[in-house]
Specification:
Multidrug-efflux Transporter Regulator, Chain: A, Domain 2, 47% helix, elongated
Amino acid sequence: MSSTPELDLFGEPITATPASANSTNSNQPSERGYKAISAAAKELDVATHVLRFWESKFPQLQPIKKSGRRYYGPEHMALLKRIKTLLHEQGYTIKGVQGVLKKPGVVKEAKAPTPVAAAEPLPLDKWRKDLEQARKLLSD
């Protein structure tokens, strides 16, 4: 009679390990690059409820859920960082970010995000400069 092995959180067979090896068990999410919601929130400097809210708004963001806990892998973290950058640093709305993420290839970009560089000024900076120029013209 053949029995199927018990699978871990990631669908891999669980192997018996001696008690001394428990501290280095590679089946632990954190040791496999996965983070619990609290660790992910801390790394991103946002509250955990924000991550849960983003999950409801961005279907691309689907963390692994096991035993009532959320685990974010490296690809999830990259997507979360991209969402945070678009929302908090570039001034996008939720709807705007949804549009950006619907574009082909955006999720692939999120796996290896490029750092936000000062290559182009943000739209708000350009508007501010334009308004300052208009104010200067009007005051002359």
